[in-house]
Here is the input.
Amino acid sequence: MGSDFDLDQFCGILAHAAPDAVIYADHEGMIRFWNAGAQRIFGFREAETIGKSLDIIIPENLRARHWAGFNETMRTGKTRYGNGDILAVPALRQDGARISVECTVLPFHDEARQMVGIAAILRDVTKRFEEMRARAANSRNFAAAD
Here is the structure.
């Protein structure tokens, strides 16, 4: 193995082929990048998402809260979810099913340090969340039987 490492190729493959969803939205919340992982998790093909609002994956009852946080990040350039904290939220699949996702975000700035968008890396944790909920329910039922 030599020094033929191509960082641009590595980054491109990582972003496009990662099994987790990698999504980039511009400063208005319009989707500009949607990878294969996002298609697998959410069900939308890339062509169905580019230029669309992030609302397509945000449950309606959570949109006001999402946009308040998104707009604050756009205004300040800061988010705690870019420093390793994980945001766990419900999301929507194309078929309307609600899923549980965990994500981290990365603010993007231009040369003048103005916010231009946000990338998010999201993982579907629905199965784990449902298993945890079932264990908690079983624990409550066991405790109630005592």
